Amino acid sequence: MRKLILLLALTCTCTTLGAQTAVACVNRYVNNQKTTQHEFDAMVDFTFNVGCGAFRKSTLLKKVNTGDMIGASNEFMKWTYVGKVQVRGLIRRRTEERNLFLKP
Hints:
Number of domains: 1
Strand content: under 5%
Number of helices: 6
Largest sheet: 2 strands, antiparallel
Shape: globular
Strand order of the largest sheet: 1-2
CATH architecture: Orthogonal Bundle
Mean pLDDT: 87
Oligomer: single chain
Helix content: over 70%
Order of helices and strands: HHHHHEEH
């Protein structure tokens, strides 16, 4: 039982640290101060999944920073592949992120 509790505690801690890292990354690299809370949340979820380095180099970020939010929203769906294989779970995740990003 103690191993399970420790495992759950470590999982929660890692998830919290990962989320904090994603928030810090989005805050650091997004220069467009007019982002909505929904756009910010979608970018944090995306960054949590792909990593700060990938987010920092992404066309999604470049479009956000130039104010092209529709163009940025279309970038989510380009991140649905593992190698050359499109993954159903990533399609679902990116669709949810895109929908959140576009939410008024």
